[in-house]
Amino acid sequence: MSMKEHIRPGVMLSEMLFPHLGRPGIFADSIERIIGIGFYENVEILPILDADERHRVGELIRTNGLSLNSWMSFIQMEEGLDLGSLDEGHRRKSVARTIEFMEPAAEVGTRGFGVLVGPDPGPAQRAAVIDALVISFCELGDAISAFTPMHLLFEPMDREAHKKGVIGPTSEFVPLTERVRKHYPQIGVCWDSSHIALNGEDLCDSLEASWHTVTQIHFANPVLDPQSPVYGDTHQPFGPPGIIGPQKIADVILKAEAIGMCDNERPYMSVEVRTTLGGDPWETDAHQRETLSQAWALYEKAKRRL
Asked: At the N or C end, where does the chain have fewer CB atoms within 10 A?
């Protein structure tokens, strides 16, 4: 069985292209090249502000059978948006600003419209912030319903190590998702190997406990040594000094199959590596594809032993 018969490989283009973000046409040009390579089925980008580039990307996505995720992450960070803010005015502003990007995202054929959770305020206020986050997600769900089949996607963070998000461990993002789904069933989790590991959790145990809430997987490589200059969720190339390489990815794919995640449809699994300043994004891409191909070979080897 080929990899594409089992999973939908994807790439986080906004990280791969990081040194060149802001260059006119960068996403359209790169998606065109990705199509030529023929390896990925899903691409993940930031909101595209230029109307002409949006039109071009939309045409490329629709005519070549790709799926696409659009992430609000950089805009949330740059503008200080916080969907869990206890300042009701700021929470409403954050929701309203996020909604502004939904129509342009739909224009380019977005499947998953991704947002991040906000910062952790500490134990005393954590429950209140999570309640506010649930309200915001439900409001965003109402708004995004006008752009079906686009759906809301959120990425839990690591809490103590690096990004310090309010959500959080598997034991908390699962019930949060279930709360939102009572009002907006289409919300999904972007399960990220880096944040799971930085929370001190076993990857396969986390996936088994959460897979019914997960609509997207990111393979990102965290560095767990606090003394390292690249400690945390810094989107390192796969392998040391990080902990994620081909074997860990193969283990997650095997677990996804074992728990039934692959029964009804092929799960979306994207690689997420940041190209450093001065680096070549297409060298990053070659590394990502080689790592995923090696992981698939290890998966097939493990299957033959069963």
From this structure: C
